[in-house]
Design brief:
Keywords: Membrane, Transmembrane, Transmembrane helix. The chain contains seven helices and no strands. The chain has about 210 residues and is mainly α. The two termini are about 10 Å apart. The mean pLDDT is about 75.
Length: about 210
Protein backbone atom coordinates (compact mmCIF):
# COMPACT_ATOMS: atom_id res chain seq x y z
CA UNK A 1 0.00 0.00 0.00
CA UNK A 2 1.46 3.37 -1.01
CA UNK A 3 2.19 5.82 1.73
CA UNK A 4 0.81 9.37 1.46
CA UNK A 5 3.32 11.96 0.23
CA UNK A 6 5.45 13.55 2.91
CA UNK A 7 7.17 16.90 2.49
CA UNK A 8 10.05 17.55 4.92
CA UNK A 9 9.53 20.73 6.96
CA UNK A 10 11.74 23.66 5.97
CA UNK A 11 14.53 24.67 8.36
CA UNK A 12 13.02 28.13 9.10
CA UNK A 13 9.73 26.52 10.14
CA UNK A 14 11.57 24.04 12.37
CA UNK A 15 13.44 26.89 14.05
CA UNK A 16 10.26 28.92 14.48
CA UNK A 17 8.76 26.00 16.40
CA UNK A 18 11.81 24.83 18.33
CA UNK A 19 13.49 28.06 19.45
CA UNK A 20 10.50 29.62 21.30
CA UNK A 21 9.82 26.31 23.10
CA UNK A 22 13.43 25.96 24.21
CA UNK A 23 13.58 29.57 25.36
CA UNK A 24 10.28 29.40 27.25
CA UNK A 25 10.68 25.97 28.79
CA UNK A 26 14.44 25.64 29.37
CA UNK A 27 16.47 28.85 29.18
CA UNK A 28 13.96 31.41 30.51
CA UNK A 29 13.42 29.72 33.93
CA UNK A 30 17.20 29.73 34.45
CA UNK A 31 17.45 33.37 33.38
CA UNK A 32 14.58 34.33 35.71
CA UNK A 33 16.27 32.56 38.63
CA UNK A 34 19.67 34.18 38.01
CA UNK A 35 18.14 37.66 37.60
CA UNK A 36 15.95 37.34 40.68
CA UNK A 37 18.82 35.96 42.76
CA UNK A 38 20.60 39.32 42.70
CA UNK A 39 17.41 41.33 43.25
CA UNK A 40 15.27 39.47 45.80
CA UNK A 41 17.53 36.75 47.18
CA UNK A 42 17.63 32.98 47.01
CA UNK A 43 14.09 32.14 48.16
CA UNK A 44 12.58 34.82 45.95
CA UNK A 45 14.54 33.50 42.97
CA UNK A 46 13.19 29.99 43.57
CA UNK A 47 9.64 31.30 43.66
CA UNK A 48 10.16 33.41 40.53
CA UNK A 49 11.50 30.46 38.52
CA UNK A 50 8.61 28.25 39.61
CA UNK A 51 6.07 31.00 38.88
CA UNK A 52 7.45 31.45 35.37
CA UNK A 53 7.18 27.81 34.37
CA UNK A 54 3.79 27.11 36.01
CA UNK A 55 2.17 30.30 34.71
CA UNK A 56 3.41 29.32 31.23
CA UNK A 57 1.81 25.89 31.60
CA UNK A 58 -1.43 27.39 32.98
CA UNK A 59 -1.61 29.82 30.07
CA UNK A 60 -1.34 26.92 27.62
CA UNK A 61 -3.97 24.85 29.46
CA UNK A 62 -6.44 27.77 29.55
CA UNK A 63 -5.96 28.37 25.85
CA UNK A 64 -6.17 24.62 25.17
CA UNK A 65 -2.66 24.50 23.72
CA UNK A 66 -0.68 21.31 24.23
CA UNK A 67 1.96 21.62 26.94
CA UNK A 68 5.31 20.56 25.41
CA UNK A 69 7.11 17.61 26.95
CA UNK A 70 10.21 19.76 27.44
CA UNK A 71 8.21 22.22 29.58
CA UNK A 72 6.71 19.41 31.65
CA UNK A 73 10.16 17.94 32.31
CA UNK A 74 11.44 21.38 33.33
CA UNK A 75 8.49 21.91 35.69
CA UNK A 76 9.03 18.55 37.41
CA UNK A 77 12.76 19.17 37.75
CA UNK A 78 12.32 22.74 39.05
CA UNK A 79 9.71 21.64 41.60
CA UNK A 80 12.00 18.97 43.03
CA UNK A 81 14.97 21.35 43.04
CA UNK A 82 13.00 24.15 44.68
CA UNK A 83 11.64 21.85 47.40
CA UNK A 84 15.14 20.81 48.41
CA UNK A 85 16.42 24.36 47.95
CA UNK A 86 13.78 25.81 50.30
CA UNK A 87 14.43 23.04 52.80
CA UNK A 88 18.23 23.42 52.92
CA UNK A 89 18.46 27.15 52.14
CA UNK A 90 21.71 26.39 50.30
CA UNK A 91 22.49 27.98 46.95
CA UNK A 92 25.12 25.32 46.24
CA UNK A 93 22.65 22.51 46.94
CA UNK A 94 20.09 24.16 44.66
CA UNK A 95 22.57 24.72 41.84
CA UNK A 96 24.03 21.22 41.97
CA UNK A 97 20.60 19.57 41.74
CA UNK A 98 19.90 20.39 38.09
CA UNK A 99 23.31 19.04 37.15
CA UNK A 100 22.63 15.76 38.96
CA UNK A 101 19.15 15.72 37.43
CA UNK A 102 20.58 16.32 33.96
CA UNK A 103 23.01 13.45 34.40
CA UNK A 104 20.04 11.27 35.39
CA UNK A 105 18.21 12.43 32.26
CA UNK A 106 21.25 11.43 30.20
CA UNK A 107 21.10 8.00 31.80
CA UNK A 108 17.37 7.80 31.02
CA UNK A 109 18.20 8.53 27.37
CA UNK A 110 20.71 5.69 27.38
CA UNK A 111 18.17 3.39 29.05
CA UNK A 112 15.61 4.25 26.35
CA UNK A 113 18.10 2.93 23.79
CA UNK A 114 18.33 -0.34 25.65
CA UNK A 115 14.52 -0.55 25.54
CA UNK A 116 14.64 0.18 21.79
CA UNK A 117 12.44 3.24 22.33
CA UNK A 118 14.77 6.24 21.92
CA UNK A 119 13.35 9.10 23.96
CA UNK A 120 14.38 11.77 21.44
CA UNK A 121 11.83 10.34 18.99
CA UNK A 122 9.07 11.31 21.44
CA UNK A 123 10.51 14.71 22.35
CA UNK A 124 10.92 15.56 18.67
CA UNK A 125 7.13 15.61 18.41
CA UNK A 126 7.18 18.85 20.45
CA UNK A 127 8.86 20.61 17.55
CA UNK A 128 7.60 18.94 14.38
CA UNK A 129 4.75 16.55 13.63
CA UNK A 130 5.88 13.39 11.87
CA UNK A 131 3.41 10.89 10.38
CA UNK A 132 3.48 7.42 11.90
CA UNK A 133 4.86 5.83 8.71
CA UNK A 134 7.82 8.25 8.81
CA UNK A 135 8.59 7.46 12.45
CA UNK A 136 8.55 3.73 11.64
CA UNK A 137 10.99 4.07 8.74
CA UNK A 138 14.31 2.33 9.47
CA UNK A 139 16.41 5.37 8.54
CA UNK A 140 14.39 7.59 10.86
CA UNK A 141 14.60 5.04 13.67
CA UNK A 142 18.38 4.84 13.27
CA UNK A 143 18.62 8.64 13.29
CA UNK A 144 16.78 8.87 16.60
CA UNK A 145 19.06 6.19 18.06
CA UNK A 146 22.12 8.24 17.08
CA UNK A 147 20.70 11.58 18.21
CA UNK A 148 19.58 10.09 21.53
CA UNK A 149 23.13 8.85 22.08
CA UNK A 150 24.47 12.30 21.14
CA UNK A 151 22.27 14.11 23.64
CA UNK A 152 22.99 11.58 26.38
CA UNK A 153 26.71 12.25 25.97
CA UNK A 154 26.21 16.04 25.79
CA UNK A 155 24.03 16.15 28.92
CA UNK A 156 26.26 13.89 31.03
CA UNK A 157 29.56 15.49 29.98
CA UNK A 158 28.29 19.06 30.31
CA UNK A 159 26.77 18.53 33.74
CA UNK A 160 29.82 16.68 35.03
CA UNK A 161 31.93 19.69 34.00
CA UNK A 162 29.45 22.07 35.65
CA UNK A 163 29.62 20.15 38.95
CA UNK A 164 33.41 20.46 38.89
CA UNK A 165 33.08 24.22 38.29
CA UNK A 166 30.55 24.63 41.10
CA UNK A 167 32.80 22.85 43.59
CA UNK A 168 35.97 24.69 42.54
CA UNK A 169 34.87 28.21 41.55
CA UNK A 170 32.89 31.04 43.12
CA UNK A 171 29.12 31.14 42.56
CA UNK A 172 29.48 34.17 40.28
CA UNK A 173 32.15 32.51 38.13
CA UNK A 174 30.16 29.28 38.03
CA UNK A 175 26.99 31.03 36.82
CA UNK A 176 28.89 32.87 34.08
CA UNK A 177 30.92 29.89 32.85
CA UNK A 178 27.95 27.52 33.10
CA UNK A 179 25.74 29.82 31.04
CA UNK A 180 28.38 30.32 28.33
CA UNK A 181 29.15 26.59 28.15
CA UNK A 182 25.47 25.60 28.15
CA UNK A 183 24.58 27.99 25.33
CA UNK A 184 27.60 26.99 23.21
CA UNK A 185 27.29 23.22 23.68
CA UNK A 186 23.50 23.20 23.36
CA UNK A 187 23.60 25.32 20.20
CA UNK A 188 26.16 22.97 18.66
CA UNK A 189 24.16 19.87 19.59
CA UNK A 190 20.96 21.42 18.23
CA UNK A 191 22.74 22.33 15.00
CA UNK A 192 24.04 18.79 14.54
CA UNK A 193 20.63 17.32 15.37
CA UNK A 194 18.74 19.56 12.95
CA UNK A 195 21.29 18.94 10.18
CA UNK A 196 21.04 15.18 10.66
CA UNK A 197 17.25 15.32 10.80
CA UNK A 198 16.98 17.29 7.59
CA UNK A 199 19.46 14.95 5.90
CA UNK A 200 17.40 11.88 6.81
CA UNK A 201 14.14 13.47 5.66
CA UNK A 202 15.71 14.51 2.35
CA UNK A 203 16.79 10.92 1.76
CA UNK A 204 13.26 9.76 2.46
CA UNK A 205 11.94 12.21 -0.10
CA UNK A 206 14.47 11.00 -2.68
CA UNK A 207 13.56 7.38 -1.99
CA UNK A 208 9.86 8.19 -2.42
CA UNK A 209 10.54 10.02 -5.68
CA UNK A 210 12.38 7.04 -7.20
CA UNK A 211 9.79 4.40 -6.22
Amino acid sequence: MDQPPFTPPHLPSLLRQAVPMLIEGVFAPLAVFYAALTLIGFNGALGAALAWIYLGMLWRVVRRIRVPGTMTLTAVALTAQAALGFWTGSTVVYLIQPEVGTICLGLVLLASLRLRRPLMAKLAQDFVHLPAFVLKHERVRQFFVRVTLLWAFVLIANSAGNIWLLLNESIGSFLLLRTVAMVAVTALAIGVSVWGFRRVLRRLSLDAATT
